[in-house]
Amino acid sequence: MLKYEENIGSDAGPMDTSNEDFIALKSIIKNHPSNKNELDRLEAQLLSLRFQLESFLAEKTPKETFPLGCLLKESVDSLNVDYIAFANYIGYDINELSKFYSGEKSMNTDLAIKFGQIFSVAPSYFLQVQCKNELLISMRLNSEKYIQYKLEDLLNKAS
Question: Do residues 102 and 109 touch, judged by C-beta distance below 8 A?
C-alpha cells in the first residue's frame, strides 16, 4: 500500500509532506464529504441548503429564478427517504408534491413550515425565495407595463 510520503510517478524524488500545499490538500481530502459519517454528511447538506437560500436572497438582481422545488427534492433525496414515505410523513398528496418539485406548484406556508422543521431552516427563507421568484418572473414578463409607474408622475397628476 502506498503511503503519502512515497513518490508516485515523478522524477522529482519523494513528496515533501511538510509543504503547505500538501498539508492543505491532505486536509481537503480528509474533510471531503465521502470521508465523513452519515450525521456529518447530513449537517453539511443542511448548511449547503441554508447557504444557497441565503445567497439567492442576498443577490440584488438575480438573472435567474431559484429552483426551490428542485433543490428541496435533492435535499429530501439525500436523506435516502422513500418519496411516498416522505409525502405521507408531511401529509401531502404525492402528485401535489411532484408538482411542487417540478415548479408547477408554488411554495406555501404549510410546506415552508414543514420543510423548515425538517431541515432546520427558517420557513420564511422558503417563502422569501418563492416571492422573489414570482417578482422576477412578473417583472421579466411585464417590464413595459410597470415602467410607467413613477412617484413624480403620480404627484404631477394628483396636483
Answer: no
Number of domains in the chain: 1
C-alpha cell recorded at residue 153: 408622475
Q: Coil, strand, or helix at residue 59?
A: coil
Query: For residue 139, what is its C-alpha cell?
Result: 417583472
Identify whether 101 is part of a domain.
yes
Which cell numbers hold the place of 9?
A: 510517478
Asked whether residue 127 is assigned to any structural domain, the reply reads yes
Q: Which residue range is the domain that position 132 belongs to?
A: 39-146
In a domain, 152, yes or no: no
**pTM (predicted TM-score):** 0.70
Question: In this model, does residue 149 exceed pLDDT 60?
Answer: yes
Helices 123-141 and 38-58 sit at what angle, rounded to 10 degrees?
40
On whether the CB atoms of residues 29 and 35 are closer than 8 A, the answer is: yes
> What pLDDT, in 10s, does the model give residues 62-99?
989 999 999 999 999 988 889 899 999 999 999 999 99
Q: 49-76 burial, b for 16+ CB within 10 Å, e for fewer?
A: beebbeebeeeeeeeebbbbbebbbebb
- Cα–Cα distance, 128 to 55 (Å, whole number): 12
Residue 122 belongs to domain with CATH number: 1.10.260.40
